């Protein structure tokens, strides 16, 4: 069964609900939880699987689409568990940002969180090809290196650095 998403306006108000395929085809605005997962002072940066329809083989933080009726926090905890096999401890909201990915006609309201990943990492190979544990400076270097990265990784790191100033 296809996921149903809340279609929102720029004030984060639900306009209606629609199947994921319609949201993606029309570039409708929807919600996503993006999570900077820390383990032992390093950030889990994942390389998306090559078979993903959007942003294949791009480096990213954990990202999870918020399903209709689900909270950002529920999606964040679910995403960390599904993608990395970890429990999200001390989930902390950093902020919201509308992100437009023109390459994939993708428009999302990103709510950024940080958390501590707890447990033994077990990646979902259908979603994630590999995970690197990097410092903030190493993540900046990865972005600057010219490899493919998601807009939410770039914006998320910027928001995180601004929040800890």
Automatic annotation (TrEMBL):
Domain of life: Archaea
InterPro entries: NUDIX_hydrolase-like_dom_sf, NUDIX_hydrolase_dom
Nudix hydrolase domain sequence ranges: 28-155
Record keywords, A-Z: Hydrolase
Gene3D superfamilies: Nucleoside Triphosphate Pyrophosphohydrolase
Keyword Coiled coil set for record: no
GO MF annotation terms: hydrolase activity
Swiss-Prot/TrEMBL cofactor(s): Mg(2+)
The name this protein goes by in its record: NUDIX domain-containing protein
